[in-house]
Amino acid sequence: MTRVLGAPDGEQSADALGGEPRGPRVWAARAGWAVADSAVVARRYLAHLVYKPDEVVGTLMIPVLAVLLFGFVFGEAMGAAMGVGGEDYRDFLMPGLFALTMAFGIGNTTIAVVTDVGRGVVDRFRTLPMAPSALLVGRSMADVVSAVVDLLVLVGMGLLIGWQWHHGPWAALAGLGLLLLLRLAFTWIGIYLGLLVRSPEAAMKFFSLVFPLAMVAETFVPTEVIPGWLAPVAEWNPLSATVLACRELFGNTTVVGESWVAQNALLMAVVWPLVLMVVFVPLAVRRYRRLSR
Q1: Which first-to-last residue range defines the signal peptide (predicted)?
Q2: What is the pLDDT of residues 162-221, one digit of tens each?
Q3: Can you tell me the distance from the alpha carbon of 244 to that of 219, in angstroms, rounded to the nearest whole number?
Q4: Which residue range(s) make up the domain with 281?
Q5: pTM for this one?
Q6: DSSP secondary structure code for residue 20 in this structure
Q7: Nearest to residue 90, comparing CAs of 252, 255, 257, 265?
């Protein structure tokens, strides 16, 4: 029987067949190792953003243009369709744009991952003495940190055009937390797609699927003004749950439907991201393990 040096008998031992050491201290050490390696990988990705700010600008361009177009150009007309004024419509619009930005982050994640795979970066990381999970977890950590910056910019822009939260700072932080949870779930979808496709061009084709997801939701108009056959799709869209929950937490103008999912938006804003991660985290891990086979 083998032992880890300095470990108590029976705690960090391996069986006679040469199994790996087991025990609470070993698992704790491995967890700390994985966290430290993931943080290093996350810093690497974030450092790249410092030298490539165009990626952040590109992500923010669509929601910023949406604020200008839908908030000021079409705001009065869309507000009239909802029975509210332009100012109230902008109050309604901003949580939708926050969630829209989280969804569009899939594109950056997918392209970054497929680029790293194509350039051999992933293969080089796999040869290093680091935790196997560090590359994927580090990528997700970096994307969430980047999403925090995106949200801060959009919140600042919203404050400039008159948007604000009305239920206090803790409710506002809870709303931002739900947005980041959604971004984390979409990050793992992007990681899986980045490991699945073979080129950035193919990744862009998958990214185009985000647009219907973003439009057939509560982002720009309530489901009540969406055609009846599309309304159930919009109501069960993960984006809609987060948008409705954020409007409730921020105290913004909202129109809540009568469906069960709309009445339980706060619950679904937590459930949907968790379900997506339960599905896509194992898929991404499996695909990562098969890259060099």
Answers
A1: none
A2: 888 988 899 999 999 999 999 999 999 999 999 888 877 777 777 777 778 878 888 888
A3: 9
A4: 46-289
A5: 0.83
A6: P
A7: 252
- Domain contains 241: yes
Whether the CB-CB separation of 4 and 105 falls below 8 Å is answered with no
Contacts of residue 88, defined as CB under 8 A and 6 or more positions apart, other chains included, come to 79, 253
In a domain, 146, yes or no: yes
Chain segment 223-237, per-residue pLDDT in tens: 877 877 888 888 899
- What 3-state DSSP class applies to 13? strand
Q: Is the separation of the CB atoms in 213 and 103 below 8 Å? A: yes
Tokens 């339980």 label which residue?
264
- 234 falls within a domain: yes
Contacts with 120 (C-beta within 8 Å, 6 or more apart), sequence order: none
Instruction: Report the number of distinct structural domains present in the chain.
Output: 1
Q: Give domain status of residue 102, yes or no.
A: yes
- The amino acid that residue 175 corresponds to is G
